[in-house]
Amino acid sequence: MASETSFTKAFSRVASGTFLSRLLGLVREQVFAHLFGATMAADAFFAAFRIPNLLRDLFAEGALSSAFVPVFKRELNSPEGGKEGAFYLAQICFSIVTLVVGLIVVVGALFSPFLVKLITPGFSEVAGKLELTGQLTAIMFPFLLLVALAALAMSILNSFDRFGVAALAPAMFNVGVITAAFLICPLLERPIFGIAIGVLLGGVGQLAIQIPTLLKLGFRFKFRPVLKNDRLKEIGKLIGPMIGGLAAGRVNIFVNTVLASMMATGSVSYLTYSYRIMHLPLGMIAVALGTVALPKASRHAAENDLSGIDRTFYRAIQLCFFLVIPVAAFFITAGDLVVALLFQHGQFVEADTFYTSRALIMFSIGLIGFAGVRVTAPIYYALKDSIRPMRFSIISIAVNLAANFALIPFWGFVGLAAATALGGLVNFGLLLVNLPKRVETIRLGPVLKIFIKSLLAGTLSGFAVYLGRSQSWIIAISDTLGGRISKLAILMAIATLCYLAISYSLNNIPSMTDNRGRPDDD
To answer: N or C: fewer beta carbons within 10 Å in the chain?
Structure first.
């Protein structure tokens, strides 16, 4: 009982903090859309931020966190190391990250014009667009170091079950950008540079908010660039394949950006806005589940407790399916209304809503794949297996790239979103099917049963929304801000009631407190 309740409470804290962060992220995107719409400046900013953002996943929130937590957790629980040994390891990692990522930042800023030409060759056809993207990239590159240090701090806090503060940290990034939009952008001749400055302010805040809790735990920042350390070597062995797997995924994003830059102005923005909306449930649900699952599964792995890993996985995947699938169904059937409410004002016009919602439909189809990867991959990492996830990632990216070129002639930039969704589904499928080879007590039958029940309930709830929005009294609701909110609220109520009723009839509502471990698959 305690273990399962602990997981649920931890997930609730992370989900709450992530929800606040994602909510502020949507506010940030609304402010940005109002100021810049889908213009040349917006395309330039999104492309420029994508470069340090891609590297962030490789060196910070992705590979570094996933490699650091299992080793740090084992050192923390070992009689020889304990808290003092774990903090010593953390000091070494902070020092190495500062030196390595700091060097990458300097080189990246200096060579930003070359990087921009590489990733957005189509921008050269619009006067000044390539140069603007390069300038923005150079300004924002230091964000990579700030977020890498923040991710390391977050990993330490999560290892001590201090999930709440760590989950709130990303919200500071959004606060920084929103503040800059109102206070800095109006002072500049080219307001888009104010957003770039806000990115740096947000990175500082993301790190700073975690420092008081780190100090309370007894951690002190000391410069220890020690390379000869056994635990550091373990992290190095894990992080290499992780970077390889993530790098393969980022190749796809790189290709998507290159291809979208060659399409009509606004294509990069449409993909970015729709991806941001999809990331709200992805972050609040799947990333939160993965964040909790990694340290808990790592503790069970350190104790050689396969049943504990079993329980952690089933709990995470059950909540993932139950919560993510209905959201995906709603976005597919009412995504245009969501886009209109969030972004259609100022420079963001009705046509932008239409194109953004088309991409959102495709991303929503792949949402279960993206979410499943976030929940399943941490189990491999807890077992210190980063090779298989890397292989599966490379395979999925090959499928993704092939689908890009197959779908673009028919769907344009929407084809890029569809190919990305397909790649996510393939990646999740490979991780899931091969998981019993790593944890023999895990069976796929119960997982498939939960998935089918959730998919059935989600599909029927989506159909209910489709029928509901075609009713004349709903169509008649005015297209004002209040009208948009009312229409979405009504449709969300229909979807929620329908989904819960069907899930209840299928006995598919997960318990928030039980400790049964594997679901019944009789």
So the answer is: C
